[in-house]
Amino acid sequence: MLSNINFWEYLTAIIFYFLLLIKPISNQGIACYKCMTIDANNDSCQDPFSSLLNPIHNNCQATSVGKDGTFSARFCVKISGRVTSIDGGANASYLNTIFYYRTCIVDNIMESTKSLETSGSFRLKGFQDMSGSIRLQGHISLCTHDGCNHARTLCSSLLIIILDLLNVQTNSEFATLLYDFNLYKNVVNGHICFSCRKVKFSLLKTSFRCEICLQRICSKCQRQVNYHHNNSCFILSPFPMRSILKTNYVGS
User: Fold this and answer.
1) Which end of the chain has the least Cβ crowding within 10 Å, N or C?
2) Does domain 167-251 have CATH number 3.30.40?
């Protein structure tokens, strides 16, 4: 009987968060921030990002591969990294600088990876407002809700929310996440420990950042990670005892 109650509680939570993410069906596109690094010494597109310097674009429009004209965007995108090479008339001043690019797109440029984010070496070509091509060593993230490409890390995937809820250990933790959505936002934005969800970071309470998912954990949870040598990325498994892969954490 108790297990049935827990099942329905988890199911209710999943439906609740799913409804928060659903948009009414319409022809209006997603709202995204659009900016690009022009001057590396005075970059208004860099992190931490200011929405005052870069107003959001409602019903963001973008081109689509093989089609003429512009269409309502389906994704916001944030691209950042160090420029390692340039060609085809790209701005030569970009070389060896940190480049930021935020925009909206129609086509899923991450479809081949089956993921909403990736890190590595990649070439940018054919984007609006960019001539030529540049090669970056950095990070690409896609997200699917209004204004989501302003943050340092983008966490918009419904799968992440579902997996996080399924990893809740007790009914009290479950109730806290369900009814305090502000806590959930603070956790995924790195203000509160992603593992224990109790420690709030400050100048006196430092955090450790996962090199894979960029989520932050407190020193106590980090010691548990070091003790258990086989650990998964915390964005998939917040609790060290459930982890199965190796994850490296760096101090911040």
Assistant:
1) N
2) yes
- Would you call 103 helix, strand, or coil by DSSP? strand
Q: Is the peptide bond before 55 cis (omega within 30 degrees of 0)?
A: no
Provide the CB-side half-sphere exposure for 194 (13 A, CA): 26
Cβ-count burial 145-157 (b if 16+ within 10 Å, e if not): bebbbbbebbbbb
pLDDT tens-digit readout, 51-67: 888 889 999 999 888 88
Bin 126: left if φ > 0, else alpha if -120 < ψ < 50, else beta. left
Unique residue bearing structure tokens 């001539």:
131
> DSSP labels for 107-172?
S-TTGGGTSSEEEEEEEEES-TT--SEEEEEEEEEEE-STTGGGSSS----HHHHHHHHHT--SHH
Strands 75-87 and 133-143: antiparallel
How far, in Å, CA of 27 to CA of 72, rounded?
Answer: 7
Alpha-carbon gap, residue 124 to 131, rounded angstroms:
10
Contacts of 16 (CB under 8 A, 6+ apart): 178
> 118 near 108, Cβ under 8 Å?
no
- Determine the Cα–Cα distance for residues 212 and 120; give it in Å rounded to an integer: 12
Contact between 29 and 74 under an 8 Å Cβ cutoff? The reply is: yes
Note the pTM of the prediction, 2 decimals. Answer: 0.51
pLDDT digits 0-9 by tens, 84-129: 998 877 878 888 899 999 999 998 887 766 677 888 888 887 666 6
